[in-house]
Design goal:
By secondary structure, the protein is of the alpha+beta class. The chain folds into two domains: about 200 residues, Metalloenzyme, LuxS/M16 peptidase-like (Cytochrome Bc1 Complex, Chain A, domain 1), CATH 3.30.830.10; about 180 residues, Cytochrome Bc1 Complex, Chain A, domain 1 (2-Layer Sandwich). α1 packs across α7, α9 crosses α15 and α10 packs antiparallel against α11. Keywords: Hydrolase, Protease. One of its GO terms (molecular function) is peptidase activity.
């Protein structure tokens, strides 16, 4: 069957995703939408930077950057020319727990796009010149970041907060670790992670279930079973209550802070998500924004977000302020956390947060690519194919009791690990 032959049935909602199996044993979550003659594919392989060999942080990221640098009999230039000639968008990325990718193409070029994806996944070349070019790019980026306060603060936070754990290593590596990565390391990591038994796939656009099933066979069927991943032990943020200084001669200190969190797969994640919006997740409405920026002018930006990895979860915060006002800014942040734990939000504050979070959710599904990536992330987290349909009801149903329970699991003692990059006078 030619993938370019598609029908014109009515577009489907992302809440109506359906499973599509394939003979290769790979299943995709599928949303058919023939309104625009395009197809977006997103995929994620279990295993990422946490699987980097000892002393070779950055290996997963280098692997991801090399997958479209030539495959089979196509050199890097020839591979990129094939993509460009058909306006095919193919990219790969690596995170702590996964290596993923994205493919976007016009329906009339779907066959060639799928074939190129299959080659990139199953037969990457890892040519020496491509490896050295990507290595040089990564090392140039690392050198540029050596004086970036935000990067230095973030790296130090993870090094201290997850000492001795794979999450404590920088995903992009260091100059020394990237220099040490060999072609054999890349081949071994490819064999470990890029296998059909470890992949989650989502497809959105003008492609039928039968066409998608055939495309899955062609894209992933030649892959072997994935290797056995090294166990990544469960962990939490260490050294809560400690403050760490990264000495840097700059007039403004960049601050990163973190507390215990709740993973996405936990029943209390949604209450924690609403609570975080009230504290620091709302761009202009959060308590931290109002108290730190609007009332006191301590910082241009301040906020918090929930981070959920396979082996940990945390509340991750950021701000930046003048060196002489770092202590004051941290005091205000701590006071707001304590006040939220002690008193909780008002009923009006809670309702406004829920209204915003339910009303804005659809903005994450306004393109085929966004829908595909949302679906594959939900599949990766094993949240269920009906999660999108359930999510707003779960948010709307959060009660004050739920908020208090989530606060007790996260902000209870108010202790944070804080890292400041700069020269604060009252840290």
């Amino acid at each position: 069957m030619n993938l370019a032959e598609t029908d014109t049935r009515t577009a489907s909602s992302p809440t109506k995703a359906l499973p599509v199996p394939s003979a290769a044993g790979v299943e995709a979550w599928h949303v058919e939408s023939p309104v625009v003659p395009m197809i977006a594919l997103a995929f994620t392989f279990e295993g990422g930077a946490a699987q980097d060999p000892e002393g070779k942080a950055g290996c997963a990221q280098m692997l991801a950057r090399l997958l479209d640098e030539g495959a089979a009999d196509l050199t890097s230039d020839a591979f990129q020319e094939r993509l460009a000639a058909r306006a095919i968008e193919l990219s790969f990325h690596a995170g702590p727990d996964a290596i993923g990718g994205s493919l976007k193409m016009l329906v009339k070029h779907a066959d060639e796009a799928i074939d190129l994806l299959a080659l990139a996944l199953a037969k990457p070349r890892f040519d020496p010149d491509a490896i050295e070019r990507v290595r040089a790019q990564m090392m140039a980026g690392l050198r540029y970041q050596q004086n970036d306060p935000g990067v230095l603060a973030s790296r130090r936070f993870f090094r201290e907060g997850f000492v001795g754990h794979p999450y404590g290593r920088p995903s992009s590596g260091t100059i020394e670790s990237v220099a040490a990565i060999t072609r054999d390391d890349l081949l071994a990591m490819h064999a470990l992670i890029v296998g059909r038994s470890k992949v989650k796939v989502a497809a959105v656009g003008a492609i039928s279930a039968d066409q998608l099933s055939e495309g899955l066979n062609r894209a992933f069927g030649a892959l072997p079973e994935a290797g056995t991943l090294r166990a990544v032990p469960q962990t939490t943020v260490k050294d809560l209550g400690r403050r760490v200084l990264v000495d840097l001669d700059v007039p403004q200190s960049v601050i990163r802070f973190g507390l215990a969190g709740i993973p996405w797969r936990d029943p209390d994640f949604i209450p924690a998500y609403v609570l975080n919006h009230i504290l620091g997740g709302g761009a202009f409405t959060s308590r931290l924004f109002q108290e730190v920026r609007e009332k006191r002018g301590l910082a241009y930006s301040v906020g918090t977000s929930l981070v959920s990895h396979r082996a940990t979860a945390m509340i991750w915060g950021y701000t930046a302020t003048k060196n002489e006002r770092v202590g004051e800014a941290l005091s205000v942040i701590g006071d707001e956390i304590n006040r939220l734990v002690a008193d909780g939000p008002s009923d009006e504050e809670l309702q406004k947060a829920k209204d915003y979070l339910t009303g804005s959710y659809a903005l994450g599904f306004d393109t085929s690519t966004k829908i595909a990536h949302q679906l594959v992330q939900i599949a990766f987290e094993n949240l269920g194919m009906d999660y999108i349909a359930r999510r707003n009801d779960m948010v709307a149903g959060v009660t004050q009791a739920d908020i208090r329970r989530a606060a007790a699991r996260t902000y209870a003692d108010g202790k944070m690990l804080v890292v400041a990059a700069g020269r604060p006078t009252d840290f």
